[in-house]
Specification:
Layout lengths: L1 H10 L1 E5 H19 L3 H10 L2 H11 L11 E9 L6 E7 L2
Antiparallel strand pairs: 1-3, 2-3
């Protein structure tokens, strides 16, 4: 799940299965809440859970956009198509603008 969270933070928008999107949403929202505090302890907590490049992007790039927002940083949009090989429902997970 850490790799999926890191990829979402780097790309800011991903297409994945609905189950994975629902699983990763609370993890990434918790990380954004930590990054919003903008203190050294928060950055160090992010560095323990994410790669350095990803943690820095979240801390310096994404978190300042959501200073006035109290929650709900991600949105999940269900797609009409399903995956061909196993029929899993697909979704797009992205940061709210």
């Amino acid at each position: 799940m850490k790799n999926l969270a890191a990829n979402l933070i780097i790309k800011e928008k991903m297409e994945t299965t609905l189950a994975r999107a629902k699983e990763i949403r609370p993890i990434v929202e918790r990380l954004v809440t930590i990054a919003k505090k903008q203190n050294l302890a928060g950055l160090r907590m992010l560095l323990t859970e994410l790669p350095k490049k990803t943690a820095q992007k979240l801390f310096y790039g994404i978190a300042p956009r959501y200073q006035s927002r109290t929650g709900g940083y991600l949105k999940i949009t269900k797609m009409a198509k399903s995956r061909k090989r196993d029929g899993a429902p697909m979704a797009i997970i992205e940061f709210v603008q």
